[in-house]
Specification:
Layout lengths: L4 E2 L4 E6 L5 E7 L9 H11 L16 E5 L1 E4 L4 E4 L4 E6 L21 H8 L15 H15 L4 E9 L2 E2 L23 H13 L6 E8 L13 H10 L4 E6 L10 H4 L3 E3 L5 E3 L7 E2 L2 E2 L4 E7 L9 E4 L5 E4 L13 H24 L2
Helix pairs in contact: 1-3, 1-7, 3-7, 5-7
Length: 364
Amino acid sequence: MSHNTFGHLFRVTTWGESHGPALGCVVDGCPPGLGLTVEEIQHWLDRRAPGGSRFVTQRREPDAVKILSGVFEDDRTGGPVTTGAPISLLIENVDQRSKDYGEIRDLYRPGHADYAYDAKYGVRDYRGGGRSSARETAARVAAGAVARKVLGEAITIRAALIQIGDVKIDRSRWNWAETENNPFWCPDAQTAPLWEKLLDETRKAGSSVGAILEVEASGVPAGWGAPIYGKIDAEIAAALMSINAVKGVEIGAGFASAALTGVENADEMRAGADGKPDFSSNHAGGVLGGISTGQPIVARFAVKPTSSILTPRQSVDKNGQNVDVSTKGRHDPCVGIRAAPVAEAMLACVLADAKLRHRGQTGR
């Protein structure tokens, strides 16, 4: 299986399967001398970990990370720092229940990658989807923790759910602090209870729902990215699109900009006190011509409903026979709930790569 690596100067390779003994990543290109501890990486993994509420899979994985290489206890700093060598991170799987998938080993689950994997490789790991499982994203979150160290504290990356099913937040009530007060990363305190009711009803019905999330990076300086084939918004879109179950990505106003006039869409500028322009709006999502403008970078993405559901769906098996498939096991009624930390990690990795490439080309 190829294409397990993304990035240019800051490169991330993930490995491992949902029901294998472990998974992890190798981060190559991290500059030396950055303080990096297990606890700092674990903080971000704990935000993604399963079993945090009744609205997500009850698989109990501590996601305890181990640093295997690329970090050294530096006497001069009094703590562990990156050496410039590849950073290898390991996360053991401890709560696999492969027997839950025995009944569907020869069946293609509708909406899953089962058939596509079999068609390409002639073999598939039916235990939780193997490599196609969202379990793989734990490694991305670990890599994102390293990327945040490269970016530094001046850049803030955060994500929120803005819609589950057909229930949207009220953006006039947006409060980033609220995302830490409910199990949905919801910035609108009044919408979170509505989502609870929706998800309880959905689970009882043996079904699932999709979601839309928004991720933002503030503090990104102007000038990152390249104008043609290295557009920073294109690389952000690719990174977010690579997350399991994501079916659509937009930057800034995105598809809504098609309904705007040129007068409305223009992000007007005036001279700012610091010599940089002040923008009146941010329909561009912080990117113009593939290059960051210094405004917050904003992206949204749509996550499809969880394909593993109890309600039987029509499909076929490996022998071409018609079957009905009902997926047992521990599944999220909405996989988008745990996608916020993953989106933050992917954006962090793209931006860390952009920072290093910008520095390599301009010296700044």
